[in-house]
Amino acid sequence: MDNEQFRQTLQQLHAELHNAKSIDESSRQLMLDLRDDLQQIIDKSYNEEYGDLPGLMKRLENAVERFEISHPKLSAAINNVISTFNNLGI
Questions:
Q1: Which residues of 5-39 are buried (b: 16+ CB within 10 A; e: fewer)?
Q2: N or C end: fewer C-beta atoms under 10 angstroms in the chain?
Q3: In angstroms, rounded to a whole number, what is the distance separating the alpha carbons of residues 53 and 38?
């Protein structure tokens, strides 16, 4: 797994989350939880498996839909995370 690519994608996601000033508390918590899940994946070595990857992918897809209209840049950043997983064959 390309940790540098994940780190860059997470940094973009974190920046967009920080810039989304009008985001409600439950949405912000959702994003923080997703960020923590992604960080766990980065922290694992290439040979370790992440236990709930299908669940994480579903949560990411739901977040894209949730923020698509109200926060398009945030939605795009989340979509980049999904694309990164897909590009790495995860």
A1: ebeebbebbbebbeebeebeeebeebbeebeebbe
A2: C
A3: 10
Give the C-alpha separation, 82 to 51, whole Å: 17
* Residues 85 and 57: beta-carbon distance below 8 Å: yes
User: Which residues, at least 6 apart from 41, have a Cβ–Cβ distance to it below 8 Å?
Assistant: 1, 6, 50, 53, 56
DSSP-based three-state secondary structure for 78: helix
Model-level pTM? 0.74
Give the tens place of pLDDT for each residue, 1-49: 566 777 787 778 777 777 777 778 888 788 888 878 877 776 765 445 6
Q: How many domains in the chain?
A: 1
Alpha helices in 1-90 (DSSP H): 3-19, 25-43, 53-67, 72-87
